[in-house]
Amino acid sequence: MHGRTIPWRVETRTKASTVFAVLAAMIIVVGVVAPAYLPRATLQDLFFILTMLVLAQSWNLLAGYAGLVSVGQQAFVGLGAYAMFAGVVLLKLDPLVAILLGGAAAALLAIPAGFFAFRLQGAYFAIGTWVVAEIVRLLIAQWKTLGGGTGTSLPGAATRAMFGTDLVQRLMGVRPAQAVDIICYWLALLLAVATIFTVYRLLRSRHGLALASVRDNQEAARAVGIDARRLKAMVYLTSAALTGLVGALIYVQKARISPDAAFSVIDWTAYVIFIVVIGGIGTIEGPIVGVLIFFALQKLLADFGSLYLLALGLIGIVIMLFAPQGLWGLFASRTGIQLLPVRRLLRGGSLDT
Amino acid sequence: MSWADTILQGVLLGGLYALFAAGLSLVFGIMRLVNLAHGDLIVLAAYLILVLVSGLGLHPFLAVLIAMPLMFGIGWLLQAYVLNRTLGPDILPPLLVTFGLSVVLQNGLLQAYSADSRRIPSGSLETASVALGPFNVGVMPMLTFASAVAVILILNRVLYGTELGRAFRATSDDAVTAGLMGIRPNRTFAVATGIAMAIVAIAAVFLGTRANFDPTIGPARLIYAFEAVIMGGLGSLWGTLAGGVVLGVAQTIGGAVNPEWQILAGHIAFVLVLLVRPRGFFPRAVD
């Protein structure tokens, strides 16, 4: 049959993604009104899930898309949190404004940290980022006004007077502490949605295409004029800013900080790595799946303390060895379903009917 | 305390860091593998020696002779059955698997031996010292430094004077061609990691007899080892010793000024060295 030749076109949408876009919009609406009907403990669980999701997405952006395996994300969580504390305690800022300060401080740190760590090739980059985190932790522990090595608390009056708490208190008839939790939850939801959206947009843009080409073949990518170093630096900076923002937000809710907790490699990097590896590295859906599994495992096994971490480590190793694309990767390769497609599909022409 | 004395102590401490780093340097040189569990394996070996010392009543230096072949076996199995599967152009799998291993080892040791800090008893050696001219030098730090020099001498001898060393270097240069010449790369890698773990046992006996240890101190040892390797320049074992010495001296000087600055001073020395000489003091390998 002499079919008309349909012109070639590049598509990035799939049927599943259109359905998912509608579903995602519904989930977000349900999420926004959740404080009206969910108990405070559930809201705190959701806050934890959402903040871990932001950390996982930004680590995945680094490691899964830019090939920059960082083991030093705790540097940005800790510095973001401490900058927020400094803003509230020393500059008397509103905690909401101080969170932005946290993100800015983390992005500022990423400039010298990146300058230093980017000198280390491949695997040594990983330990280089860890050294940076150690240096920042040791320096912060010298900051006596913010409690030095033992840490300090956020003044209760400052968080209760946070922007919006009054309104939430009156509208929903809750106590101040609960109002703070609700606002933190909304911010975490906003940040999670914004992070996924940012990563999604970035990967679908020219830069995303460039990033994929650098990942697949750095020499070929450079040959067509892609500045791999600049691209990686941009990703590193974006990831640092997001991590700093969420670090500051986590500590508005925790309201108590110490260098050992804020710069914990287990809490802010190991957990995050396991979430991404279990869910599926190099996909946007992977960290979402991973964080849900991680939360379920924690609820089931948290009482076992070190055995829980032992199990998590073993699961991570087994997945990396036998299913390196993670659970979402396995699912997607079997079914071909992509909820947040970032690949470009060639359609049209005489072959397509 | 005089400055000369502080610097001497720092140099001797550098011997300990060189021992931490020698295995890491060897493994990286041969298979470009960075083992993030290296520090935790040192701690594992320290517990192994502690069990031999307290269970069988052995002297630590006798116990290390038993621990070395055991650690060699652990290293061989680890490389042959786990790490060889992760080798390839992609750096993610080895990093993430060894990072997982680090978490597994730390928590396995916590489960088995609790978070209490331990020490390997070494009798009168703990406090023994000799007068060296104007300085009073501990016997243990001197033994550590001497062991580091001996380990590096022997390793260099193996690398450049034996058939095994030729296999190591050939595999490092080009694993495929080495395979054509009858060398099995995976076997060679397993032996290399085995040797690295035997060195880890030596590092562990000095770690455990000189100071307290607990299951969580591994990552910090990894960082010191890594700093020594990078400062020294990849591929040079004597460079690793030099890197360890710079780190040790920076730490003792920092610690003499203010005890809280000890660790920080070491890290800052590392950053400064890397800024001035990005490839370290004696770079040999291209990457």
Write the layout of secondary structure elements.
The complex is a heterodimer of chains A (353) and B (287).
Chain A: E1 6-11, H1 15-33, H2 40-66, H3 74-89, H4 95-117, H5 122-140, E2 152-153, H6 156-160, H7 165-172, H8 176-204, H9 206-216, H10 218-223, H11 228-254, E3 256-257, H12 259-262, H13 265-279, H14 285-301, H15 306-322, H16 326-335, E4 345-349
Antiparallel strand pairs in A: 1-4, 2-3
Chain B: H1 3-31, H2 38-56, H3 60-81, H4 92-113, E1 129-132, E2 135-138, H5 139-161, H6 163-173, H7 175-180, H8 185-210, H9 218-232, H10 237-257, H11 262-276
Antiparallel strand pairs in B: 1-2
Helix pairs in contact in B: 1-5, 1-8, 1-9, 1-10, 2-3, 2-4, 2-8, 2-9, 3-8, 5-6, 5-8, 6-8, 9-10, 9-11, 10-11
Task: Give the overall average pLDDT of chain B.
Answer: 90
Main beta sheet strand tally, sense and closure of chain B: 2 strands, antiparallel
**What sort of overall outline of chain B do the alpha carbons produce when their principal axes are compared?**
globular
Q: What is the rounded Rg of chain B?
A: 19 Å
Number of helices of chain A: 16
Q: Tell me the distance between the termini of chain B.
A: 42 Å
Helical proportion of chain A, percent range: over 70%
C-alpha termini separation of chain A: 11 Å
Indicate the overall shape of chain A.
Answer: globular
| Biggest β-sheet: strands ordered side by side in the sheet of chain B | 1-2
For the biggest sheet of chain A, the summary is: 2 strands, antiparallel
Largest interface: A-B, 41 and 42 residues
Instruction: Catalogue the unreliable spans of chain B.
Output: none
CATH topology of chain B: ABC transporter involved in vitamin B12 uptake, BtuC
Q: How many structural domains are formed by the residues of chain B? A: 1
Report the uncertain regions of chain A: none
Describe the fold and architecture.
The complex is a heterodimer of chains A (353) and B (287). Chain A is mainly alpha-helical. Chain A has helices spanning 15-33, 40-66, 74-89, 95-117, 122-140, 156-160, 165-172, 176-204, 206-216, 218-223, 228-254, 259-262, 265-279, 285-301, 306-322, 326-335; strands at residues 6-11, 152-153, 256-257, 345-349. Chain A has a domain at 39-279. Chain A contains 16 helices and four strands. In chain A, the strands form two sheets. In chain A, strands 1-4 form a two-stranded antiparallel sheet. In chain A, strands 2-3 form a two-stranded antiparallel ribbon. In chain A, helix 13 packs parallel to helix 16 (326-335). Chain B is mainly α and 287 residues long. Helices cover 73% and strands 3% of the residues of chain B. Chain B is built from eleven helices and two strands; from the N terminus they run ααααββααααααα. Chain B has helices at residues 3-31, 38-56, 60-81, 92-113, 139-161, 163-173, 175-180, 185-210, 218-232, 237-257, 262-276; strands at residues 129-132, 135-138. The interface between A and B is large, with 41 and 42 residues.
